[in-house]
Write a structure and sequence with these properties.
Blueprint lengths: L7 E2 L2 E4 L2 E2 H11 L9 E6 L6 E5 L4 E5 L13 H10 L10 E5 L2 H4 L3 E5 L9 H4 L4 H20 L16 H16 L5 H12 L7 E4 L8 E3 L7 E4 L6 E4 L1 H9 L24 H12 L7 H23 L12 H17 L3 H4 L1
Antiparallel strand pairs: 1-2, 2-3, 4-5, 5-6, 6-8, 7-8, 9-12, 10-11
């Protein structure tokens, strides 16, 4: 039985891989104010990435985040990075949970973890959940998403103590190298599309003109909306890939997850943004650019790169799932998502206005 699948232990209470006795002992001495009675926990989501838990004592509720179980690729699933950025952004207009405690002692739970505030909000990250909103509310939700991303990218890293959080120079080249290595480290089958995409992307790397804080995984599934106001985002979540770099990389990710009528859907979002009312990609980009008061260059390169990056992430998740190192549900179809994303990226290169991508 893998660590990820165990639910009980002779040594103590274990919930979906989370050792509650070890956690209680640590929090009682390291969390400000200690804990009030016995710790309980439940898995919020094994996610397709980091296991996330609802943790409570007699009077408090928190969210605990930790890296996946089993083999984790170098530099991926960085809890220190995630904790650092949400703690820094607390003083800005970007809505983030309060960060309470970071534990880098891997002897406690087997990995670095942190505690943050549990935000009460509404998730519309699936077609089923978004369908509960009216078309007018879906439009407001989409525009709010563009606004929050623009607000993040407008934050001066120096002003929030993130000036050493990453390097903007050479960011895109390093990203290509990183995700190429990640593919090599986690691939479960050979796919010639990967080499073809990397060749095209490397020939056409744009010059970074809009540096700033990059989230790295911006999609509707990673935001929570006010339950009373679908036009207000109360939390932007999942900062494990955040760094300093080219902010247009986030715009590419946003578009990769923003499905459009007549186009191939991202297999993760399953046509989510095609629901009536959600802004078009063009409207989303216009809102974002107006909010930042910028002129956007051609973003095809960033969209192609986003599809490639997401495909590599999914391949890594598939590899962990095949080894039994995932918790929760929603993994059985991951392997089938990789090929369509790679093909969609190649298809865009063939019709792109960026000459180097078409070659």
């Amino acid at each position: 039985m893998s660590a990820a699948s165990s639910t009980t232990s002779d040594a103590g209470r274990v919930v979906s891989g989370l050792d509650l006795d070890a956690l209680s002992t640590y929090l009682s001495t390291h969390l400000a104010g200690g804990i009030d009675g016995e710790i309980t926990a439940s898995l919020i989501s094994g996610g397709r990435s980091n296991p996330t838990y609802r943790v409570a004592d007699g009077s408090n509720i928190w969210v605990l985040r930790r890296p996946p179980f089993g083999h984790v690729l170098p530099s991926a699933h960085d809890m220190v990075r995630e904790f650092t950025v949400i703690d820094a952004l607390a003083s800005t207009s970007v809505p983030v949970p309060e960060a309470f405690l970071l534990c880098e002692d891997e002897d406690v739970l087997g990995a670095t973890f942190y505690l943050m505030e549990l935000i009460d909000g509404n998730s519309i990250g699936t077609p089923e959940s978004a369908a509960a909103l009216s078309p007018a509310d879906r439009e407001r939700a989409g525009l709010a998403f563009a606004d929050v991303l623009a607000d993040l990218h407008s934050v001066d890293p120096d002003s929030v103590g993130l000036n050493t959080f990453g390097r903007t120079n050479g960011y895109l080249e390093r990203q290509l190298d990183r995700w190429s290595r990640q593919w090599d480290a986690s691939r479960t089958t050979d796919r010639p599309e990967v080499a073809a995409l990397l060749d095209k992307l490397r020939r056409a790397v744009p010059t970074t003109s809009l540096p700033g804080i990059v989230h790295g995984d911006v999609k509707l599934d990673n935001v929570l909306y006010s339950r009373s106001d679908p036009g207000k985002i109360v939390a932007l979540l999942d900062w494990e890939m955040a760094t300093l770099g080219d902010t247009l990389a986030d715009v590419g990710i946003m578009l990769s997850f923003w499905d459009q009528p007549g186009a191939v859907d991202n297999p993760i979002t399953r046509g989510l943004a095609r629901l009536d009312g959600f802004p078009s990609r063009a409207a989303l980009l216009e809102r974002y650019a107006d909010r930042r008061n910028i002129d956007l260059p051609d973003i095809d390169w960033y969209t192609v790169f986003a599809d490639f990056k997401i495909a590599v992430i999914l391949e890594g998740i598939n590899a962990r799932h095949a080894k039994g190192d995932t918790v929760g549900e929603g993994f059985d179809d991951v392997a089938d998502m990789v090929g369509p994303l790679l093909q969609r990226a190649l298809d865009l290169t063939r019709t792109s206005s960026v000459h180097e991508l078409r070659r």
